[in-house]
Amino acid sequence: MKTWQQAIKRLFDFVVSIVSLLIVSPLFLFIALLIKLDSKGPVFYVQERIGKDGKPFDLVKFRTMVVGAEETGLGLEVARDDERITRVGRFLRQWTLDELPQLINVLRGEMGLVGPRPGMASQVARYTPRQRRRLEVKPGMAGWAWINGRNIIPWRERIELDIWYIDHWSLRLDLLILLKALGLALRREGVYGPDGIVRDLE
Predict the structure, then answer these.
(1) How many angstroms separate the CA atoms of 132 and 73, rounded?
(2) Which of 31, 65, 115, 141 has the most CB atoms within 10 Å of its CB?
């Protein structure tokens, strides 16, 4: 992606993230209240992810699981019927509302509205040289792989779709992805894998 294209994409992300945060701020407060009433622990779940050019950043989500969930059960993998998911968390996951705080990451310039989903350091360490092309752009809240199967398709296929996106980027493509991502979230499709589990990099 050329420098002027990156500038256009950043301006678009900045404006849309500010407007979106203003619009959904009442929803943010309502969700935060529900999380606090439902279970002990913080409202937000913060996890280190790897961004553009391999730079780490703190990804922000609404907390959907009990505190310390990573040290129990399936660890970093999550099942549809996972006992570690809270009651409110189950609803947030089904409707992809737990991802809304990533608008903060977009505003801070760590993510874009559209791009490859950000991987964890343990996943990025296993990338092949070709798969590391995924790090050529900022990660996104939604992406080409996200709207073409999300967690249903294997990691290897997701990464290839992300590379295709990098090679064919346009503002029009970003708008198309955002519209399709909204529809996907409303239909609650692809939240978990075909076996009902969100798996680590395979």
Answers:
(1) 30
(2) 115
CB atoms within 10 A of CB 178: 16
Contact of 87 with 59, CB cutoff 8 Å:
no
Identify the residue whose tokens are 């346009």: 170
Nearest residue to 49 (alpha-carbon basis) of 62, 59, 40? 59
Q: How many CB atoms lie within 10 A of CB 7?
A: 10
Quick check: 47 and 74 in contact, CB under 8 A?
no
- Structure tokens belonging to residue 62: 């609404």
Stated pTM of the model: 0.93
pLDDT digits over 42-74, tens only?
999 999 999 999 999 999 999 999 999 999 999
Strand 197-198, strand 78-79: pairing = antiparallel
